[in-house]
Amino acid sequence: MAQQHFLFSARLIEKLPSLRNLSWRLEAFVVRSLLKLMQSMTPERAAIFANFVFRNLRFALPFTSKIRRNLSLAFPQKEPREIRQLTRDVCGNLGNAAAELVFAERIWLERDDRIEFVVADGVNLADYRGNAAVMVTGHIGAWQISTFVASQYKLRITSIFAPEKNPFLADLFLRLRTALPCEWISRDGCMRGLTQELKRKFIVGMVTDTRLDSGDPLDFFGVPTPTNTTAARLAQRHNCDLLPVRAERLPDMRFRITVFPPIKPEDPAASASEQAHQMTQQLLAYFESWIRETPDQWMCFGRRWPHEAYADIDNRSHRKG
Q1: Most exposed: 59, 177, 193, 291, by fewest CB within 10 Å?
Q2: Annotated domain spans of the chain
Q3: Sheet holding 133-137, edge to edge
Q4: How far apart are CA 83 and CA 295, in angstroms?
Q5: What are the pLDDT digits (tens) for 137-166?
């Protein structure tokens, strides 16, 4: 999830545009220094270190308040202190995600000790060698390493990435991504590339749990929100399977990657648009269940619901203030 700035708020940069270049340079220095330190450690120590750093950097991160508001809306039954603790944990798990990207190559080389692959009954991934499919996950758990399914089962996967806005970090993160076993297409203007990959009978990978303002309103945690239905529509258009994939973060830098059964429309006689809604709603149900299991591992850095959905949360905060 590419951010414009990490250590300065977008609002501050808008007021003081002269800070933009300084902000990017400072952020690049901090990130490169942290990654260099992590590379000198074992993967386990690096994950603990990065978790600690990001947990304690939360007051400087511009999206911390968005994490808190998202968690408050998703879990209205939780007390404010629980939400504060979860917010700290989410920031810490951003550090874990950084460590997983830094050590992606080593994780794969040590896969026998680090990765457990689970495939749902009735799913034979060998069938997707030479056949198109759409694999989808969310920014939950160790989502970045879900692409190891490709290496394990000898599949060709092309995934979307969001280019880094910081020009002093773009090359670094591009190099880190190359350790993951997939081809990459920039999010900007990606539809043509994804269509070509599916026509060539390859698999495309998507992370689709973010808000899309032009999307269709579907329920997420019981709240209607504009939702990206592209994955379902691509699967329909190319007559291929829509496969949910989950990468769980386990203790000691270990992981479980699960491939679930293909999602099918509930009513095959419905219109194409309605079928896409039905399939995407099922996908959201997967995401919601994963988040409920591990809310601290949901990378909810952006506004997830329409502004009006947060009214009660903001009113409560205003009254307390």
Answers
A1: 59
A2: 10-320
A3: 115-119, 254-259, 241-250, 133-137, 203-207, 157-161, 183-186
A4: 10
A5: 999 999 999 999 999 999 999 999 888 888
